[in-house]
Amino acid sequence: MDELESIMELKKGDLSGLEELVGRHQVEAVQIAYLILGDRPLAEDIVQASFLRAAERIHQFDPDRNFRPWFLRIVTNDAIKASSRSKRQLSLDLAQEAAMAPDWLHDPNPGPEELANTAETRRMVWESMQQLTPKQRAAIVMRYFLDMKDREISRELDRPLS
User: Fold this and answer.
1) What is the pLDDT of residues 92-151, one digit of tens each?
2) N vs C: which end of the chain shows fewer Cβ within 10 Å?
3) Which pLDDT score, from 0 to 100, does residue 124 have?
4) What is the pTM of this model?
C-alpha cells in the first residue's frame, strides 16, 4: 500500500492505514523528537502521541501535499510542548549520550555524506545541540531536517524573524 492509499484508508477509519504510516515515518520522527528533547523514552512517547494526533486530524490533511512534512511538524510541535511542560532541565552526561546517540540516531543506510562524518564530529555536534534550549533545537531541526523556510519556523515557534 502506498502512502496516499494509507492516508485514504485512515480517513475511512481503517487503522491499517495508520500502521503503514507508522512503519514509514516512526524512525525519523523519533530522531526528530530526540534531537529536540534529548530524552529517548520521552521522544518515543511523544511520537506515539503524535501518530494518534495525526490520525485524529487526518481529515484536515490535504492529500495533494506530502504527508511527511505535515506529520513531522506535529511531532516537532508536540516535542516543544513536552519540553515546556517539563519543569526539570534535562541533565545528560554528554559524553555518554554522544557515544550512544550515533548507534541509533543515524540512517541505517548511510549515503556518502554520512560515511564522511567522523565520530568526533558527531560527538561535537551532539554536545553543542545539548547546550541549546528545546526551542532552539527545534529551530535547527525545522530548518535542516524538515527544510522549512525561515518564515515558517518563525510562525511555528511564535518568534520574530531574525
Assistant:
1) 443 344 444 444 444 556 666 655 556 667 778 778 888 888 888 888 888 887 888 898
2) C
3) 80
4) 0.68
Total domains in the fold of the chain: 1
Q: What gap in Å lies between CA 32 and CA 38, rounded to an integer?
A: 10
In the block, residue with C-alpha cell 568526533: 120
**Closest of 70, 89, 83 to residue 35, by C-alpha:** 83
CATH of residue 56: 1.10.1740.10
In a domain, 84, yes or no: yes
Q: At what angle do helices 3-11 and 16-37 cross, to 10 degrees?
A: 110
Query: 63 CB contacts (<8 Å, ≥6 apart)?
Result: 4, 7, 8
Measuring CA to CA, which residue among 91, 93, 90, 25 is closest to residue 55? 25
Please tell me the distance from the alpha carbon of residue 140 to that of residue 161, in angstroms, as a whole number.
14
Q: At 35, which amino acid appears? A: L
